[in-house]
Amino acid sequence: MDKWLLDREWGYLESAIGNSTLIQMSRDWKPVNLPHDISLEKERKKENPSGFEEGFTSGASLYYKKELIIEKEMKNKTFTLEFEGIMGICSIIINNNVVAKHVNGYTSFLVDASDHLLIGEKNVILVHVENTHKPSSRWYAGTGIYRHVWLHVGEQVHVKPWDCKAHVTSFEDHIAHLQVNTTVTNNLHSNEKASVIISVLSQEDEVIAEETKDIVLNSNNKLVVTTDFELSSFTYWELEQPYLYTIQARVIRNGVDDEIHSTTTGIREISFDAKDGFKLNGKSLKLKGGCIHHDHGPLGSASYDRAEERRVELLKASGFNAIRLAHNPHAPALLDACDKLGMLVINEAFDSWVAGRKSFDYHLFFEKYWEEDLESFVNRDFNHPSIIMWSTGNEVEERNGSSNGYEWSQRLADKVRELDSSRAVTASACSLMSEYANMTTIVDGNIILNMLGNNVDPENDIWGEATENYFAPVDAAGYNYKVKRYKYDATRFPDRVIYGSETYPHNLFENWEETEKNPNVIGDFVWTAIDYLGEAWTWTSKCWGFEYVSRW
């Protein structure tokens, strides 16, 4: 498929949802190029219901408009819109027809526009974004179409975005067994014969492996074409030499090279073990990690490719070899930079499940859309060699088993493995409120309650017992502010792989000492590696008879 960037020459106006015909006739459109975060344009007020966690910012209800002419030469093509991220509940309207809706502000999504775009005429694409419901986040999220928008143009027999997946199934006698699964879609009302050529290209654009398969596609159907390669001469993707290969899928129909689909990947071997730790390409490696949110400070949540790349450059120059994406999917450009520069990634899906963290956060939609969002999360990012773990949840309220938390942990892990069995599945947990029942004093008044309990009581291990079934389905357990448990849990949970998914920077030396001397601990991720918008306050509160002060 050809891929057209649609970021230029949009308009926007603030308005509650209404008649789309009247909306597009308005003369109040302001010109804008994407990505765009309208929250940056608004005054911050103490009274805003977003509160301190979202930085006292305002959301908005707004429309975006894009006018697009599809040339007559494009007749009989297929058209797929790709939205990398829209912060807010959104509706996609093409020529006055609502064609899609999406509620997760962090996940990318695809819209089949083939039956809605007019050929040789002006098309009007409207996007309504509703983000006035506050509070909706525990940090600054932004508002609007804050990532790229693409139009994919292909033939009636084609490979859709995210439908060519490559991974190494095994390494044996210096041979990498590379499997490529390519889904070919037939939009025609007739059965079609085609040849699919899968090529593996080196970083120098030389074809090092290639295979052709003849297929028959049923009408209005799709077929997964599996191709296996044995690569006896290959270059590992390493942190200091992040070598990338190109996987190219060509569809030949009626003797014509109809379709070309390309993606990049890397060849690397990863393993996780409670005794041997984490290994990359057979070599032991401790993860020197940092957590990052998706915003870019004064740029807000708007995702610019160079800003994403620069962030990875700065982190790598500072000594980090891994980052944890807190606490939702980030922009594709960030992962591209991690692939290119050599940075390992924990890719995280959700900050909340059934039980909400904020009144209007994702918990309102989780039970209906979790599977759809997990599929787009994994499918979009499948080929990135930088990703070593998929995280199903961060500090979710259900970590103690409430609201069927143990069942949800299993269900989510199972779904991720169904989509990708080549990486580890993880989730993180912080302290439990029940741990504070017998507390009478505070050692450090600057630590908020949610982070307390960095201790172990072998006679009454509330946290270990409550979270055991939460961690049971995952391959690696993320400990938030639980460094003092590392040694103890090596005995209590001898098969558990642990990493410090969040740790305090002021305890960095102690945290790293514990990480290095405990083989069951594969790394440490400081909170945070780069400052971010939101979660800023100074306040005093009384709880259970004692007083504490938090300053962030």
TrEMBL record:
It holds the Pfam family Glyco_hydro_2_C. Residues 169-268 form the Glycoside hydrolase family 2 immunoglobulin-like beta-sandwich domain. SUPFAM superfamilies: (Trans)glycosidases, beta-Galactosidase/glucuronidase domain, Galactose-binding domain-like. Residues 277-431 form the Glycoside hydrolase family 2 catalytic domain. Residues 62-135 form the Beta-mannosidase-like galactose-binding domain. The keyword Transmembrane does not apply. Keywords: Glycosidase, Hydrolase. Coiled coil: none annotated. Belongs to the glycosyl hydrolase 2 family. This is Beta-galactosidase.
